[in-house]
Write a structure and sequence with these properties.
seven-stranded mixed sheet; three-stranded mixed sheet; alpha/beta
Length: 205
């Protein structure tokens, strides 16, 4: 399994028992990698698609550490609170990676799904620790709603972020996203994955 998130570098900056929120957990690939290096991590994983949730639960059934450390939550995550969120997804039961709340985000997303939703504010409010050590987000354009529509004081409870950021248009792009996080008091760095997608890391100053 390729370490696209550079877990080795995270080991040097995270505590021994980090509290992690994983938004867009897919089948738990990031969580498996993180737990292979940081065994006492406590992870709250959020994934909206049932096919991916089933794969995560299958991993949990055969991996004791994963089962103990990862709380699987079958929700889409939003910034603005709502009960259900419309997603556009591929018309397949296989593992999916490009489902998005943005219509037209991917031409393969021809199927509409209504998914139970929870806001980032609600997630953070239900976590007893004062701070979140790491937020990982891979939600195909949903990063803008989640971060921009969450109150700044809630966002600031997050010490470090790893976010896949997509250029959507002139208003929502890597420049505006990174500038906003800078205004909230984060040091921001990013590298290009392809022509419209970036791997962004933000750390509170």
């Amino acid at each position: 399994m390729a370490d696209v998130y550079n877990i080795g570098a995270l080991m040097r900056v995270l505590p021994d028992d980090p509290l992690v929120i994983d938004i867009g957990a897919n089948a738990g690939f990031f969580d498996i990698l993180l737990l292979s290096k940081i065994k006492n991590a406590q992870i709250y994983a959020y994934e909206p698609l049932s096919s991916n949730i089933e794969r995560m639960r299958s991993v949990a059934s055969s991996n004791r550490r994963f089962d103990k450390s990862v709380t699987i939550n079958p929700f889409a995550v939003t910034g603005t609170s709502c009960e259900m969120l419309r997603l556009y997804a591929q018309d397949t039961e296989d593992n999916q990676v490009v489902a998005s709340s943005l219509k037209g985000f991917n031409t393969d997303n021809t199927k509409e799904l209504w998914i139970p939703a929870i806001s980032l504010s609600e997630i953070v409010a239900n976590i007893p620790k004062a701070k979140i050590d790491l937020l990982k987000m891979d939600c195909e354009g949903g990063e803008y709603d989640i971060v921009l529509n969450t109150p700044p004081d809630v966002v600031r409870r997050i010490e470090r972020m790893l976010v896949e950021v997509h250029d959507v248009d002139s208003q929502f792009n890597i420049n505006t996203f990174s500038r906003y996080l800078g205004e909230l008091g984060y040091d921001v760095n990013y590298t290009s994955i392809n022509g419209f997608c970036y791997a962004l890391e933000a750390c509170k100053k």
